[in-house]
Each structure stands twice: as structure tokens, then as C-alpha cells.
Automatic annotation (TrEMBL):
Coiled-coil annotated residue ranges, if any: none
Region named Disordered: 54-73
UniProt superkingdom: Eukaryota
Residue ranges with Low complexity bias: 55-73
Name of the protein described by the UniProt record: Williams-Beuren syndrome chromosomal region 28 protein-like protein
Amino acid sequence: MQALLGSLVVLELPVLLRCLCWQLAYLVTWTTCLASHLLQAAFEHTTRLARAQEASGPLSGSPLPASSSTLEA
């Protein structure tokens, strides 16, 4: 009886490990896909904001100088 039980555990262990590996691979794949979609949405949102800002005209009081000659004065 003990030998049968021992062989059953030995046979089931690889099956359980294989199942666990597939579950982990699925979780990593799903998380990566979700992160990809979120980054794509953030990029599209940023480009829409940039286009809206360009359409509204140049900003007054921009933190960047207009040219390098203004730094010398």
C-alpha cells in the first residue's frame, strides 16, 4: 500500500508542477498584455493632449528660452 501511495505521489508531482508552470505563464502573459494596453492608451492620450495644445497656439511664458542669445544678455 505504501509503495502504491509513494508511486502515486511521484506520478502526480510532475503533473502538478506542469499545471503550476502553465498557470504562472498565463499570469505573466496576461499581465504583460494588460501593461501593453495601458501603455498604448497612455501614449494615445498624450498625443491627443499634445495636438490639442498645438492647436490652441504657442504657450506664453514658456520655460524654454526662444534662442541662445537671450541667455547672454
